[in-house]
Each structure stands twice: as structure tokens, then as C-alpha cells.
Specification:
single chain, 149 residues, mainly alpha, 434 Repressor (Amino-terminal Domain), 8 helices
């Protein structure tokens, strides 16, 4: 009897968020760029870091991920800091929050900064009441119209 396992959907990417594979390709491209700047072949690079030519090729293409220890070895072999491989990545994929995300962040900061737990409870009650909406919406509109007349 064969068991069927449900297929999980791929996780969604948020705005400005890079997938791991994108970063792997970026780091690999930076590795290749530095290797070429130093005039090394892939074979020479592979020997310097103790892997096969094929593995070095896969690192450069972003096909295989580079473990932290291996990245450190590669950085030493290429004469750069580990951070060098990630330079420029932020500017390429800088996160740009939406206006709603900015408001939520400001709300969270202000909520946490409130000195009194009662104030926080009041804000929660207010948010709950507003979220339930609809019922008091007509009354609020009538009040607003009455004030503008």
C-alpha cells in the first residue's frame, strides 16, 4: 500500500526578499570574478580550496551552496574577507516597505514604548473594536457629516 504525501507549495517570496538560490548564484559569481581578477583557472582554484574542478565550477554557478567553513577557505585563498562575497547584494535587493508596513512598524514601536500596561490594553481594545467595524461605521459617518454642516 503506497502512502501519498501531500505536496507542499513553495514558500512565497515577499517584496525585496531574495531566494537562497539567488544569493548562492551571487556569491558564486563574486567567487568567479575574484578568481579571474587573480588570473587563476578553475582547476587552480579547486586545488587551492581542496575540491574537485567540478565542485569549484558548481560553486561558481551557484548550483551547490558553499558551507561557511568552505567560504572562509575560499576567502583566504582569494585574499578577501568573507564579507566581500556579499558586497553589493544589499543595493541590488534592498527591501522597500509598503506604506502599510511602515505604519505597522511605527505602531509596534509606539506600542512597546508605552509606559503603562493599561494603555496597551486600551489600544488593543480600540483596534479590536475598529476591526469588528461595520456596525458603528454608519454612526461615525453621520457624526462626521453633522460636524461639517
Amino acid at each position: 500500500m503506497a502512502s501519498s504525501s501531500p505536496v507542499k507549495p513553495a514558500p512565497r517570496r515577499g517584496p525585496g526578499r531574495a531566494r537562497a538560490q539567488d544569493i548562492d548564484r551571487y556569491v558564486g559569481a563574486r567567487m568567479r570574478e575574484r578568481r579571474i581578477m587573480l588570473g587563476l583557472t578553475q582547476q587552480q582554484m579547486a586545488e587551492l580550496i581542496g575540491v574537485t574542478y567540478q565542485q569549484a565550477h558548481k560553486y561558481e554557478k551557484g548550483i551547490n551552496r558553499i558551507a561557511a567553513g568552505r567560504l572562509y577557505t575560499i576567502a583566504q585563498a582569494l585574499g578577501v574577507d568573507v564579507g566581500w562575497f556579499f558586497e553589493g547584494l544589499e543595493s541590488e535587493q534592498r527591501f522597500k516597505p509598503t506604506p502599510q508596513q511602515r505604519m505597522l512598524l511605527e505602531l509596534a514601536r509606539n506600542f512597546v514604548a508605552m509606559p503603562n500596561r493599561k494603555y496597551q490594553d486600551a489600544i488593543c481594545a480600540l483596534a479590536r473594536a475598529l476591526a469588528e467595524g461595520g456596525e458603528g461605521e454608519e454612526e461615525a459617518k453621520a457624526e462626521d457629516e453633522g460636524k461639517t454642516r
